[in-house]
Amino acid sequence: MTDTESLIRDALRLRADQAPPEGAVLAALRRPKRSRKPVFLAVTAATAAAVAIVTTMIGRPVAESPPGGHSTTVLTTATTPTTVTPIGLGHSPTWLPDGFVETKRWFGDDVSVQRDWTGRPASTGLPPPRVQLVIKHAEAQERDVEQRIATGPAVDRVMVNDAPGLFSNDTSGPNESNGTLSFTPAPGVYAVLSVYATLDVRTTLWRIAISVRPDPTVVRPPLSVGGSAPYLVEVTDEGWMAQAMGQIDGAGYVAALGTAPRRQSKTGFQEQPRAVTARGLPAEYLVSSHGSLTVRLSPDLYLTVEALDQGVASAEEMIAVAEAVVVDPDPDVAWAVR
User: Fold this and answer.
1) What are the residue ranges spanned by the domains of the chain?
2) Residue 3: enclosing H or E segment and its boundaries?
3) Is the Cα dihedral 40, 33, 16, 195 positive or negative?
4) pLDDT by residue (tens digit) across 90-149?
5) Domain range 87-219, CATH architecture
6) Which residues pair with 236 in a beta bridge?
7) Which of 73, 117, 152, 241 shows the greatest Cβ crowding within 10 Å of its Cβ?
8) From CA 313, how far away is CA 41, in angstroms rounded?
9) What is the pLDDT of residues 223-260, one digit of tens each?
10) What's the maximum distance between 2 C-alpha atoms anywhere in the chain?
11) Is the whole-model pTM more than 0.90?
């Protein structure tokens, strides 16, 4: 796992715990302040076969006060084609308890594929039951699962479709799984299946695990920041939201695409958003913690970008970032539509 991947994954999980709906936002990725020097931003225009990137050079102020003055932005353009590589699901369960629906997908950068399914709570006030399947891809993670199965206590071992598996439990906190099964659904494929707020834990885990089969489904990333591959998609109260984090010339940005704008935190600097134009459409800039901008791409599709920095990004910078984000014009999120 690379340092960038670790930051992205940890940030996604941290922000998911901090904001409603659960898992809907990302945590800030800090970077050192920089001097007023140009950064190169890729400006995109989606096409059916590829997305053309237009490189935009802008200046990033490091002042932490709201950018009320004029920018010294200098624009140049150059065209370079690029595409966002589709990612395969690999394996999927063919059986789940009644009432469970898929609510989250995380695709890591050659690290793992994580998917969550959520059911109906047993009664009012209790957390909903949840199933999580993680397919490991990183060599170190694969070795960890293999070693865990090979050295686990005999009482916790189980056969999953003629391959050895291992049960384990972690009930140390309300957000921890109350049961886990590590297994190999196919030779060379390593998986960890967990259940949360679920009764009859081991039977449920085993029934789901033996139902896991190869799944050739390939999905297109809904968006990418600076060529980033990792992304998260989840069901929200308003529909669905996809999020990705990446770097452009060493600066960190997070982008969210969904059926509603990503919730932004306002500051005392500016109580009302500032009307601007981005991607040829009306947009709103908000100082927030570092600077953010929301564009309504269509009646039911919004793009929100936010700077992840110690300073405040100007409206001009966030406009260029919004135009640099690669957006799939027809997001492959049918599974998240209710």
Assistant:
1) 3-84+222-336, 87-219
2) helix 3-18
3) positive
4) 999 999 999 999 999 999 866 689 999 999 987 888 889 999 999 988 888 899 999 999
5) 3-Layer(aba) Sandwich (3.40)
6) 239
7) 241
8) 14
9) 999 988 899 999 999 999 999 999 987 889 999 999 99
10) 69
11) no
